[in-house]
Amino acid sequence: MNSPLWQLSACELQRRYQDGSLTPLAVAQACLARLDTVNPRLNAVVARRDERFLEEAEAATRRHARARPLSVLDGIPLTVKDSLLTADQPTTWGTPALRYHQTGHDELAVGRARAGGALIVGKTNVPEFALEGYTDNPLFGATGNPWAPDLTPGGSSGGAVAAVAAGIAPLAIGQDGGGSIRRPASHAGVVGLKPSLSAWPREHVLPSLLLDFEVIGPLARTVADARLLFDAVRGPAPVDRSSLAAAQAAAQPLRDGALRVLYVERMGAAPLDPQIAASVDRAVARLAALGHHVDAGALPLDLDFFVEAWPQIGQIGLASMFAQNPDWEAQASSKYREMAETGRRLPASRLWQIVERVKQLRRDSAALFEHLDVIVMPSAAALPWPAKEAFPRRIDGQDVGPRGHAVYTGWVNAAGLPALALPTAPSAEGLPIGFQLIGGFGRDQALLELGAAYEAVAPWADRWPTL
Q1: Active-site residue 359, yes or no?
Q2: CATH number, domain at 370?
Q3: Range of the domain at 392
Q4: Model's pTM, two decimal places?
């Protein structure tokens, strides 16, 4: 039986464009029809560009008819997170002051995708300032999880994962400052790559609230699709000097044979949902069955400092941004104004101390990956919770704070490492669960290869939510 067009992967679309059995215009029309059908329930896409989208699909159709596509992305629909600048649409960041904020620039990676012929459907929803692990804001409201629309898809790339999981578009560009690609990917049952720091260079960006932790990367339903987008957009740019280091690290040869894998089920005494623990255990057993050397144990890095420091980074970031843009603060929700006020009271020496500890974490991580190839962890500690609640207050019967569900992800951003989020077996209620593969700096391709091997023995792309 032929699948509907909205269920086709990006790689399948590319193949069918090449053999002439399908056109980008037909796919674009199916994409908009699917958007009309499911977005009213999900609120994943919050800004559309239908007329330009169809015009660009017509142009892509003509290029394919002449066998002259611009790139592997030519004619493939994707969405862009509403924390990333786009030249022809506002980037609101989910906050009222930026309702009409439009600089006329594309974020560098978005511009590369657009130049390659990718068809941008529109912008996907975020929490205000993309600072939290759910997706709700004063401008557009909450985004629902395609598997259970009353529950959250996570955040801050919640709209992005909901769009991919629901079949609105096969690809999305998300952003991850503390797990904001990987946790939503796990909550929605999709693939998400948080690249190595600057593997996708950055230029034309909103103010950074989390030092250099925020990277952007691909979301998709399959590893092959994520790799298609990642490879099409990656590559150094002089405007982002750290991208030169990422490119140099990526050029090192990959290790052949069995990989040395450390499975970290838990982060100290932090609670983990039992269904997530069981599902990830089974996934790790599949990795071992592929012939890799898997040991279980604690993460051999000292992260205690970051338990207190993590919220302070965002508080300082908000304080700095609001000092430069007081009108943004005046229109921001009260909790972000309160966070900024807390940040103002922190001494400059505290920020310097944080920066120095980040440098040490990166040195320690580099030493760790001299003896390991991959670290495996859950992507999130909790199953999806109600869509308008910022975080789950209990996990496995224990009270937790705002970051209780997010204990597995932030350290990866601080360390600048790549991590690939993959679906595992869902919960008894049918809710998605995921785990992440974490590699040494520049080892993005090795993670994608391992992810593809895992996907081959534990496929998930045939699972679709009922909407």
Answers
A1: no
A2: 3.90.1300.10
A3: 5-244+252-302+356-457
A4: 0.98
